Amino acid sequence: MLMSFTASSAAESFASWIDGSWRESDTRYPALNPATGQPFTNLAAASAQDVDIAVASAGAAFRKTRGARPATRAEWCRSAARALLAAHGELAEVLSTEHGKPVAEARGEILFAVRGLELAAESVLANGGELPQVEDANKRAIVRREGLGVWAVITPWNFPVNIPVEYIGPALASGNAVVWKPAPTTAVVAAKFREILLAADFPQELLQLVITNEVEVASHLVTHPGIAAVGFTGGSGTGRSIAKSAWDKKLLLELGGNSPIVVLGDADLEIAAAAISNAAFWNAGQVCSAAGKVLVAASCADELARLLAKRAADTVVGSPLDPDVTMGPVHLESGIARYDRLVADARERGATVVTGGERIKDKDGFFYHPTVITSVGRDAAVFSEETFGPIASLTVFDDEEDMIAAANAGDFGLVGALFTTDLSKGFRLGERIDCGLVVVNDTTNYWEYSLPFGGAAGRHSGRGRLGGRWVIDEFSQVKTLAIDIR
Predict the structure, then answer these.
(1) Do 259-448 and 16-255+464-481 fall under one CATH topology?
(2) Which CATH number is associated with domain 259-448?
(3) What is the pTM of this model?
(4) Where are the chain's structural domains?
(5) Is the pLDDT of residue 3 over 60?
(6) Where is the Aldehyde dehydrogenase domain (predicted)?
(7) What is the pLDDT of residues 388-417, one digit of tens each?
(8) Measuring CA to CA, how many Å separate 262 from each of 273, 322, 420?
(9) How far apart are CA 89 and CA 78, in angstroms?
(10) Any catalytic annotation for residue 109?
């Protein structure tokens, strides 16, 4: 039985929800609070046999409900949205405690997810069929969309409510079933979210929850013969492995990024600094669209570095449950070693650390100083790798053409940004940045559910699109009915 959440209790455990009930296990692992570095509860880990049961239950639910009309499925999503909205305050505390993001950001994430469920309902109702013209006078053809079957959905820890909704909402709206495996380090949030959705009016077996910290169990889910499609948000390396092992399934992959941010000499630097600091420090920089390589014109590089350093200094770092805090701990202690490596490498190659660049030593937990680095060389690891932490790194350029070439260099192509007061340049140069989404004069973290989101072709940032009507296309397949009327 799933017990109520209390941040101080380590005796309770949180379990998978499979085939209509909470499924306990003798195999357990701890859930950590990144603000303290200490366990606060534990989780029951599912087995491969549990995966088999979950897939079978989801498959049976899919077959039972595949005739449900779009209006019915849309109401399932609206009902889920109402349930989530009613419990968002309680869930925000769990999210903040387990993840480490400030509680205000946690509430914002959950409310954004509410909107995601509502928009999934709207999108499926707006996605009508077609009546193509055919040459055979005795035939009439109808082209419609229908669900694929059972999806394996594997989600990361950085947005443990909103990213699952990006998949679960469209999946339910499009007539699919889902076996959801959340990140093991934010599985308490997932269990509480699943518990909240029990109050929603949809066939509950359409959404199975499998909690595990075992790679073998996750691999069994991805390759399971009962799975028709796989949705995954996470690192590019894991995405590549999934693509290889699940080659026979429909794939929707939203992977890594190293967002290029081009700041031209005519940019409004106050606007640019506000947007870049948001991209670097919001959610402690743990966003696939976070600030990657900031490519700044030499004429304004010093001033931009000064403005970013001031915003870093104004960032209030501390307990995520403190309402005055604007940046909590990073989620994983292992991330700190990566940030240290990237900062040290940049220094060795001639970069200057303007502020930050190290762990906060007078706090328990996994805290890192908001960091600004300038004069970063193109040979530095931070120039080409996904940082996934609170670091803004600036590389100085004299030539706009060189800036665009540098923006397009490397393996990633998820989100980019461009800052200029010249609207023509904004269009012309923005169109040349090879990313799935390019934002002019705002943060790379800008996105709305109504917009398509995904990586550019030929890069390591994924395939397919989340968002709006485009994600409905991903979660459905085209079927043609040709009817002879003689």
Answers:
(1) no
(2) 3.40.309.10
(3) 0.95
(4) 16-255+464-481, 259-448
(5) no
(6) 22-480
(7) 999 999 999 999 999 999 999 999 999 999
(8) 12, 35, 9
(9) 19
(10) no
